[in-house]
User: Which sequence fits this backbone?
């Protein structure tokens, strides 16, 4: 992993910067980091590299919005999400790198479509159930998805929208959810060998970029039109995801 070409190090650095920006400035753009890292290192290893980066970004997000979490909603969702993570780790243990690459691509594309649908709705148009079984479905799906591809953001956004939370409570509840669930994933990823000395070294090298991204995210969103920037990032993420899928079929 550490014998990568210079351009590969650059791509991972860009991914780290994007993750930082997504946590404090423009939610949703972090999805681009997932297929980018999976391009340059093995798919399964890429999930272990991204996870600590996400946790660093989550810490910054919690520092900004820690007072706004609505814990009853988290308590309903977290047990199911934990179960989904356990299920996802069992799946991860059975598949190969080659099999995981198109799975990551498909998950990213699905999340982009889901995010587009959510953003195309007017406020109040999204009507989804709020019963316990809805939290169970969302939690299990988000848990499996986040374990396989670190890409459960749009699913969580749908749940929070269903709870009709104001902006700060939406961000604060989401920040705590991502931090807690990503930390919960660490022992599973370590047990699978996805977090190791090499992946942690990559994380340490890119830590300054994550911090720069997180600190500049709030200012960046004021300078660049959020809608335009988000659209560009999502198009790039879709292209990267399609490439992962195409490579699977073009190299049998």
Assistant:
């Amino acid at each position: 992993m550490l014998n990568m070409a210079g351009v590969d190090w650059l791509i991972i650095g860009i991914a780290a910067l994007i993750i930082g920006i997504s946590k404090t400035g423009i939610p949703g753009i972090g999805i681009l980091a997932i297929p980018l890292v999976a391009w340059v290192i093995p798919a399964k290893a890429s999930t272990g590299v991204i996870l600590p980066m996400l946790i660093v970004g989550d810490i910054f997000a919690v520092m900004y919005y820690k007072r706004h979490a609505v814990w009853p909603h988290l308590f309903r969702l977290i047990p199911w999400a934990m179960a989904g993570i356990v299920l996802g780790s069992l799946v991860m243990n059975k598949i190969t790198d080659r099999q995981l690459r198109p799975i990551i691509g498909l998950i990213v594309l699905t999340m982009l479509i889901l995010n587009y649908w959510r953003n195309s709705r007017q406020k109040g148009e999204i009507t989804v159930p709020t019963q316990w079984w809805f939290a169970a479905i969302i939690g299990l799906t988000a848990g499996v998805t986040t374990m396989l591809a670190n890409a459960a953001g749009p699913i969580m956004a749908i749940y929070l929208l269903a709870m009709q939370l104001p902006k700060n409570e939406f961000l604060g509840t989401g920040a705590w959810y991502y931090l807690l669930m990503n930390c919960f994933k660490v022992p599973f990823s370590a047990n699978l060998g996805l977090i190791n000395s090499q992946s942690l070294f990559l994380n340490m090298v890119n830590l300054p970029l994550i911090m720069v991204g997180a600190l500049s995210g709030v200012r960046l969103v004021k300078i660049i039109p959020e809608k335009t920037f988000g659209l560009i990032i999502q198009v790039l993420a879709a292209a990267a995801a399609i490439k992962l899928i195409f490579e699977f079929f073009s190299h049998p």
Summary: The chain has one domain: 6-250.
